[in-house]
Amino acid sequence: MAGTSLRHSTDPIPCTNGEHNDGHEYALPSSDIGTCCRDDDGIPVVDFDVLVNGAADQRAQAIRELGRACEDWGFFMVINHGVPEELKEAMMETCKGLFGLPEDEKAEHQEAGPMDPIRIGTGFFSVVDGVRYWRDYLKMFTHPELHCPAKPAKLRDVAAEYSAKTRCLLLQLAKAISESLGLDGGRISEAMGLDSCFQILVANHYPPYTGGPDGVGMGLPAHSDHGFLTLLFQNGVDGLQVEHDGRWHLAKPLPGAFFVIAGDQLEIVSNGRYKGVLHRAVVGGERARMSMVSMISPCLDTVVEPVPELVAPDGQGLEFRGVRYRDYMEHQQSNKLDGKAALDIARVQRDTTRAR
């Protein structure tokens, strides 16, 4: 459908006095900047080639390390993953071309709702805790059916190949994660309907930002992902931060690596043993940042709940109730990004007033 021209993050912001905003509304509060640990030592690294091709003892060790990464961090880097660098670069460059299209060509897919299969939008008017965020994005559903803007012309073919390659990688990681929980390799996939998984590709564009008193702005606020597993790579400009032990860590990738982010559905299906990690994007400096996200999730109509093998027979220790994934996604995407608040709709509420 036709839409109005999109305002985006590089547009000047009108102020009530007729002057233009200097970017202070997007500034990350100084109190938040102070909690960031810029030493990324300790972020786990998983060698995918060992996971799938290693000798039995090597693979067993890699599975244990993967489990520790999911339990302690909910976040790790994966190396030797087999996704060609040329394909990653093509995906990044093609999406960069999309963000450079005239506004009227992008307005066709102006966001209307969380279940629109193609959405092009901006964080320009989104306010979280009094801070606007500095981001333009493309979101498209790519599996079980590929949805893609008509322009740039080569985007469909590149997105189809990239979606297939990253989906295969994520499904292999799902099997290894299942094993790390002491389950059969296919158990998590079976429980979540991952054979017909729901997949989203997201391209994030964070324009250069030099506003605010500290020169650091909010690209995306702290949140956990609504899906199961997310792959992310960026264009060489840092900005992804993950929360670990109460501090923010700037994630700096190894050459060629993907970041892997555990989402809320992994936390639910594992009954809280593995956590969906809080992460955010910060911006600053004269170079634009881009990131590419590929996320797999359960089939939309799957009711996701802890697998029984990870819950005591009498139900003691049950952390989450079953929630249809479609409902969970719509709930999280229709409300303010607020940490891990979306998980409350699935969390088992215990009676704390019962006499002790």
UniProtKB/TrEMBL annotation:
KW Oxidoreductase (keyword) present: yes
PROSITE patterns associated with the record: FE2OG_OXY
Keyword Metal-binding: yes
Entry keywords, A to Z: Iron, Metal-binding, Oxidoreductase
SUPFAM superfamilies assigned: Clavaminate synthase-like
Pfam families (UniProt xref): 2OG-FeII_Oxy, DIOX_N
Start and end residues of each Fe2OG dioxygenase domain: 193-298
InterPro entries, sorted: DIOX_N, IPNS-like_FE2OG_OXY, IPNS-like_sf, Oxoglu/Fe-dep_dioxygenase_dom, Plant_2OG-oxidoreductases
A GO term, aspect molecular function: oxidoreductase activity
Family indicated by similarity: Belongs to the iron/ascorbate-dependent oxidoreductase family.
Name under which the protein is recorded: Fe2OG dioxygenase domain-containing protein
Organism of origin: Urochloa decumbens
Organismal lineage: Eukaryota, Viridiplantae, Streptophyta, Embryophyta, Tracheophyta
